[in-house]
Write a structure and sequence with these properties.
Helices cover 35% and strands 29% of the residues. It is an alpha/beta fold. The protein has an eight-stranded parallel β-barrel with strand order 1-4-5-6-7-10-11-12, surrounded by seven helices. α1 (33-42) packs across α3 (64-73). It is globular.
């Protein structure tokens, strides 16, 4: 059964909707992130994906205080991402309440370091973040094209023991146009043992059913929850306690 993971993007301490990688034009949500997290938890959600957009752009952790607050007021497991560039960043993320970390930019910039993290921290704790546009990896909070092909990128770490990869199609982000089903199918065919976390474009329960039928490990959902096209009641049948 596919895992349903809500996502929150943090900019200047606020939850922000980002569309197609455009942070500046993002919509700010007034909801308390703690209240939102508790609501997710009350409905059976177990994992929250927290994106520190400020940190991703700066190349260092910035919104760890929000991570600490959510971790301290809920029992959610938090997958924290954004600005993780050093071992110190990982230690800090775990210290402030993260259960897992996802790293993207550093994996493109320093492949050896990210490969070492898979071994040092364990493949259950480390997810490769692949933010893409036209199949190229983008880094530093969606700002820069790395000129690295997503399939080559995944293959490099797959051969070094990678278990989890989050593939985030920036052209589908906040678009409500549906996930990149064909891309995900190609990734699963090429890397049959990978646990794929699909992000970007999910707009309906029907999308979730299709991803589930494909065998996708998890769907990370943002705008669809906030705008009400998917509600927590809709996804209860996917929320099987581990």
């Amino acid at each position: 059964m596919i895992q349903i993971i809500p996502s929150v993007s943090i900019v200047n301490g606020k939850i922000v909707k980002v569309t197609r990688g455009n942070v500046e034009a993002g919509k700010i949500y007034d909801q308390s992130i703690v209240d939102m997290a508790k609501n997710f938890e009350d409905h059976g959600i177990e994992v929250l994906h927290m994106m520190d957009i400020d940190g991703a752009r700066a190349g260092r952790l910035m919104n760890y205080d929000i991570l600490q607050t959510v971790a301290g007021h809920s029992n959610l497991k938090i997958d924290f991402t954004g600005g993780i560039s050093t071992d110190g960043d990982i230690h800090k993320a775990f210290e402030y309440g993260a259960s897992y970390i996802t790293a993207g930019s550093i994996a493109a910039i320093n492949k050896d370091l990210f490969s070492a993290w898979i071994i040092s921290y364990g493949r259950e704790k480390i997810t490769l973040g692949a933010d893409i546009r036209a199949n190229n990896i983008y880094i530093r909070g969606y700002q820069k094209d790395s000129d690295i092909n997503v399939f080559d990128h995944i293959e490099h770490f797959y051969n070094k023991g990678l278990k989890y990869v989050k593939v985030f199609d920036l052209d589908r982000q906040g678009s409500m146009e549906g996930p990149s089903f064909e891309l995900y199918a190609k990734i699963q065919e090429r890397f049959p043992d990978i646990c794929l976390l699909a992000m970007g474009g999910v707009r309906s329960v029907e999308d979730l059913d299709r991803l589930n039928d494909m065998g996708v490990f998890a769907a990370i959902i943002g705008q669809a929850f906030y705008e009400g096209t998917i509600n927590l009641k809709d996804v209860e049948r996917f929320l099987v306690k581990s």
